[in-house]
């Protein structure tokens, strides 16, 4: 039991780290906003609360996604995580960005008198330290997963939204903290509390941009994305290497969860192959593929003449 709990915490270290940081930071920001009357600090407090809620939703989504397959969902519930990732993107846009921009506009129209900014600077410094720690954990874990792949390409190819969502959230949080610091400093430097409101709007714009980006990535996962092209080519090469396979017509893949892949293969079998030999060959291919690529959870292999497959599928569309 203890080993299972430890493994689960290690698996979700990015989410737990971000949740702990955001809860502590959120309380401190609200206290600072109440004492100083800073709009950008209030915005940052709301931002931290939204981020905390997002991490809870992602942890919930991961738990739901691990449910075993049943008759109603024969491929499991893995893609439910993608649904909650999309909900997170909507919350960042609607609550995080929406409230930030609204608070900024209100603060510009009805600016509050300036108060001592010392508490703001203290909370901002602590927040940068905590958010930076969470960001460092997210970067370290994502770097470990991405390997030699470029950052942007790795994000686009990633099938685990928890990792890149926290990475984007923490990056946006750090940018927001620096904007808030500039807003607090500038409003006192030029004795104009409206500048703090403009800083709040700028934070909202950053959050909106991140939300749109996350929604785009989550939508692709929710609709269904193919496996990594390297995995697709490995499947194709493995099947093509079989002596009794004359041609691989197509390989179709789709992620049913971040770590589960469904594979559909159309191949032209040797005409002299008997039914029993064909069954043995298919069983051997399935065993070899699942051993070489543990992410593959289900395989469908269809014997099909190459000319028939060409009529059905456009050559070159290797999903």
From TrEMBL:
<dbReference type="InterPro" id="IPR058533">
    <property type="entry name" value="Cation_efflux_TM"/>
</dbReference>
<dbReference type="InterPro" id="IPR040177">
    <property type="entry name" value="SLC30A9"/>
</dbReference>
<keyword id="KW-1133">Transmembrane helix</keyword>
<feature type="transmembrane region" description="Helical">
    <location>
        <begin position="121"/>
        <end position="142"/>
    </location>
</feature>
<dbReference type="InterPro" id="IPR027470">
    <property type="entry name" value="Cation_efflux_CTD"/>
</dbReference>
<dbReference type="Pfam" id="PF16916">
    <property type="entry name" value="ZT_dimer"/>
</dbReference>
<keyword id="KW-0472">Membrane</keyword>
<feature type="transmembrane region" description="Helical">
    <location>
        <begin position="81"/>
        <end position="101"/>
    </location>
</feature>
<keyword id="KW-0813">Transport</keyword>
<dbReference type="GO" id="GO:0008324">
    <property type="term" value="F:monoatomic cation transmembrane transporter activity"/>
</dbReference>
<dbReference type="InterPro" id="IPR036837">
    <property type="entry name" value="Cation_efflux_CTD_sf"/>
</dbReference>
<dbReference type="GO" id="GO:0006829">
    <property type="term" value="P:zinc ion transport"/>
</dbReference>
<feature type="transmembrane region" description="Helical">
    <location>
        <begin position="13"/>
        <end position="32"/>
    </location>
</feature>
<keyword id="KW-0812">Transmembrane</keyword>
<protein>
    <submittedName>
        <fullName>Cation diffusion facilitator family transporter</fullName>
    </submittedName>
</protein>
<feature type="transmembrane region" description="Helical">
    <location>
        <begin position="163"/>
        <end position="186"/>
    </location>
</feature>
<feature type="domain" description="Cation efflux protein cytoplasmic">
    <location>
        <begin position="229"/>
        <end position="304"/>
    </location>
</feature>
<feature type="domain" description="Cation efflux protein transmembrane">
    <location>
        <begin position="18"/>
        <end position="222"/>
    </location>
</feature>
<dbReference type="Pfam" id="PF01545">
    <property type="entry name" value="Cation_efflux"/>
</dbReference>
<dbReference type="InterPro" id="IPR027469">
    <property type="entry name" value="Cation_efflux_TMD_sf"/>
</dbReference>
<dbReference type="GO" id="GO:0016020">
    <property type="term" value="C:membrane"/>
</dbReference>
<dbReference type="InterPro" id="IPR002524">
    <property type="entry name" value="Cation_efflux"/>
</dbReference>
<feature type="transmembrane region" description="Helical">
    <location>
        <begin position="198"/>
        <end position="216"/>
    </location>
</feature>
<comment type="similarity">
    <text>Belongs to the cation diffusion facilitator (CDF) transporter (TC 2.A.4) family.</text>
</comment>
């Amino acid at each position: 039991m203890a080993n299972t709990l430890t493994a689960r915490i290690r698996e979700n270290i990015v989410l737990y780290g971000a949740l702990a940081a955001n809860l502590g930071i959120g309380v401190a920001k609200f206290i600072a906003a109440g004492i100083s009357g800073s709009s950008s600090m209030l915005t940052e407090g709301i931002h931290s609360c939204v981020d905390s809620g997002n991490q809870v939703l992602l942890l919930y989504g991961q738990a739901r996604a691990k449910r075993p397959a049943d008759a109603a969902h024969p491929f499991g519930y893995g893609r439910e995580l993608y649904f909650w990732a999309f909900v997170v993107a909507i919350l960042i846009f609607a609550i995080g960005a929406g409230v930030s921009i609204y608070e900024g506009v209100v603060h510009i129209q009805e600016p509050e008198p300036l108060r001592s900014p010392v508490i703001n600077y203290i909370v901002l410094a602590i927040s940068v330290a905590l958010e930076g720690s969470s960001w460092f954990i997210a970067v370290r874990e994502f770097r470990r997963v991405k390997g030699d792949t470029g950052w942007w390409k790795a994000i686009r190819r990633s099938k685990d939204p928890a990792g890149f969502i926290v990475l984007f959230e923490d990056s946006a949080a750090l940018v927001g903290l620096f904007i808030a610091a500039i807003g607090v400093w500038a409003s006192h430097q030029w004795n104009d509390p409206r500048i703090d409101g403009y800083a709040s709007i700028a934070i909202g714009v950053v959050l909106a941009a991140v939300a749109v980006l996350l929604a785009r990535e989550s939508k692709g996962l929710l609709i269904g994305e193919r496996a990594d092209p390297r995995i697709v080519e490995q499947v194709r090469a493995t099947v093509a290497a079989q002596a009794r396979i004359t041609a691989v017509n197509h390989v179709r893949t789709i992620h049913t969860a971040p770590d589960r892949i469904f594979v559909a293969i159309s191949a032209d079998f040797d005409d002299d192959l008997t039914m029993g030999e064909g069954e043995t060959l298919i069983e051997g291919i399935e065993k070899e593929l699942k051993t070489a690529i543990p992410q593959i959870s289900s395989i469908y292999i269809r014997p099909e003449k190459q000319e028939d497959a060409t009529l059905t599928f456009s050559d070159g569309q290797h999903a």
